[in-house]
Amino acid sequence: EIVLTQSPATLSLSPGERATLSCRASQSVSSYLAWYQQRPGQPPRLVMYDTSNRATGIPARFSGSGSGTDFTLTITSLEPEDFALYYCQLHWTFGQGTKVEFK
Amino acid sequence: QLQLQASGPGLVKPSETLSLSCAVSGDSVSSNIYYWGWVRQPPGKGLEWIGSIYFSGSTYYNPSLKTRVSMSVDTSNNQFSLKLTSLTAADTAIYYCARHSAIRHTSGWTPLDFDSWGQGTQVTVSS
Is the dihedral of CA B22, B60, B117, A103 positive or negative? Predict the structure, then answer.
């Protein structure tokens, strides 16, 4: 069973700063990794699929990269609406989440 | 525009069976492209995939829940359903229904990304 470990658990940043979120798999995996954003009281929203493809309506400040066991979601310049929880997912498994909070 | 709407009882007693439905509009559960799944989120915790179903009736369930889960699809009413038996307080969560694609292989299929989610329905297990 593949385990996805996200780090850090919490990222404290200011608007305009760069956010780098990590998702590490317990073994080498395919590139089908996805990322979701969840705002309070809302369902998850697909942000990135197949490691580096932005979902419909996701702005260009979001990018994804990685291979093997290490994957990254980058937000180049945080907007107020980007402060939320982010989960990575591969097949049946979700990571435990990273919270991007206001510093 | 695709919409998924989960519905259910809200409050269920321990040891009882939970029954949830997800009504789909803007797409057909008979699609031969997409699959339909359930994901839950306990209060203050992360996401847990419960299981998924294809229009043909083919299912995959989370191994940790497999003995208590069953799913079905109702193509005439364009909805799919979840049953979870022998409930405990640990089953208290928001239950989301979602659509996803999958990789097909000779022995079955494996989920890919969940591209559309319903708003979720709160389920509390308490006497």
Answer: positive
Torsion of Cα atoms, A14 then A15 then A17 then A23, to 10° = 80
- Strand-pair partners of B21: B7, B81
Average pLDDT of span B68-95: 98
Given an 8 Å threshold on Cβ–Cβ distance, is B49 in contact with A46?
no
Q: Report the pLDDT value the prediction gives residue B105, as an integer from 0 to 100.
A: 84
Alpha carbons B118 and B99: distance in angstroms, whole number: 9
* Sheet strands (E) in chain A: 4-7, 10-13, 19-29, 34-38, 45-49, 53-54, 62-75, 85-90, 93-94, 98-102
Say yes or no for a CB contact (<8 Å) between B113 and A44. Answer: no
- Judged by a CB distance cut-off of 8 A, whether residue B89 touches chain A is no
